[in-house]
Amino acid sequence: MNRNITGGRKRVKTARGRTAASTRWLERQLNDPYVRRAKAEGYRSRAAYKLLELDERFGLLKGSRRVLDLGIAPGGWSQVVRRRSPGAQVVGIDLLPVDPLDGVTILEMDFMDDAAPAKLSEALGGAPDLVLSDMAANTVGHPQTDALRTMGLVEAALAFAVEVLSPGGAFVAKVFAGGADSELVAEMKRNFTTVKHAKPPSSRKGSVEWFVVAQGFKGRAADQRS
């Protein structure tokens, strides 16, 4: 009898050439129910369930026609969009190579590249009603620095969303523990009807990630300064 079927925890011995940290990561992957579920349901990563859970709570994907996926790799979020809104046009961008996805246009480039916004808008062919950002800066091991670098990506993603979103649209971004800072939240509130923080159940226990969900884009006029 295969004991793994009964839910027994799998353990991984530290192999030659593998660090203790990588062994712990592998063991966590093998015992993660979301990883197993993703494989069974054909999603490229467990991150797909974070968007699924956010969609259940906020109704992000209902009626979506044009969606931008910033930080698309490996493609789990775009898979969710295509499954829940089969008619949606989706454009994603990432520094990392991403295997092709049916119905998704993928740009392999840095979102912070000056040419990226125009290329994204051109590929989408119209104003998006949803901008998703699962971007996070490469970590350097210093929590405050890592948080600041990722927040810089969130700020850039928000500025872009405000430029391109259609009225009534939504913006979702990954942030670190503590959520978006007060200035960023204030900027979102100027441009969106509702702004909320959420931590999906599929976020790993102990993870510092949260998501900020801004809905009801007011239109460009809301961002004009007197």
TrEMBL record:
Predominant place of localization: cytoplasm
Residues of the Ribosomal RNA methyltransferase FtsJ domain: 43-217
Residues annotated as the enzyme's active site: K174
Ranges in coiled-coil conformation: none
Catalytic EC class: transferase
Residues given in the record as S-adenosyl-L-methionine binding sites: G75, W77, D94, D110, D134
InterPro entries in alphabetical order: RNA_methyltr_RlmE, RNA_MeTrfase_FtsJ_dom, rRNA-MeTfrase_E, SAM-dependent_MTases_sf
Molecular function (Gene Ontology), one example: methyltransferase activity
UniProt keyword Methyltransferase, yes or no: yes
Catalytic activity line of the entry: uridine(2552) in 23S rRNA + S-adenosyl-L-methionine = 2'-O-methyluridine(2552) in 23S rRNA + S-adenosyl-L-homocysteine + H(+)
EC number(s) reported in the record: 2.1.1.166
GO biological process, one term: methylation
Subcellular location: Cytoplasm
Pfam families: FtsJ
Protein family membership: Belongs to the class I-like SAM-binding methyltransferase superfamily. RNA methyltransferase RlmE family.
Function, as annotated: Specifically methylates the uridine in position 2552 of 23S rRNA at the 2'-O position of the ribose in the fully assembled 50S ribosomal subunit.
Record-given protein name: Ribosomal RNA large subunit methyltransferase E
Gene behind the chain: rlmE
